[in-house]
Amino acid sequence: MHRTQLLSLLRNYHPTAVDEQKYKEDIIAFVTQQPDCFERTLAPGHITASAWLLNKDGTQALLMHHTKLNVWVQLGGHCDGNSDAGAVALKEAQEESGIHNIIPVSDHIFDIDIHLIPARKTENEHYHYDIRFLLRVADDAPCIQNEESQELRWITRDPHQLPTASRSVVRMFDKWTSNNPIR
Fold first, then answer.
1. What is the DSSP letter of 2?
2. What is the pTM of this model?
3. CATH code assigned at 111
4. Could you tell me the residue range of the domain that residue 98 belongs to?
5. Which of 63, 68, 106, 175 could serve as a FRET partner for 136 with CA atoms 20 to 30 Å apart?
6. CA torsion, points 98, 103, 108, 113, in degrees to nearest 10?
7. Nearest of 109, 108, 97, 179 to residue 139 by alpha carbon
8. DSSP string for 33-82
């Protein structure tokens, strides 16, 4: 029952990118087969939730240079048992940016991804089945860096400002720049 909301969101999500179409099939199969899919302790992998966070007027997006992974990514993290991926994305965006007044642009999925997390001292290699939402800062509050990031950076729609070539991040950037989700 706790997987019903996510499965409904996924079934109503219609990606156009070929990689995302495959991710959708794989994530639906994973969620259907794994009752503990929201638990970080599920060894093969688990559901995570992320945010493509826009400033108040939608002209900038916030990225973080992740301390542990040493890569530029969107804000996000583990569900830790919470089956409401949208709520997790919002909570993670607030925690990782230090901005509390954040609102969803939509309750629908913005993007999905499956990526391998390398082994570290305390955990084995595993997959993140990432569900991404489009969020927006509701006021002009400044962001505050925390221990999870080496840097937080607002970028514009200029592709030269994008600090990564990762397909996962570039795909969200392309979605954002190809249309204006906030009007």
1. T
2. 0.94
3. 3.90.79.10
4. 4-178
5. 68
6. -10
7. 97
8. H-TTTT-TT-TTEEEEEEEEEE-TTSS-EEEEEETTTTEEE-EEEE-TT-
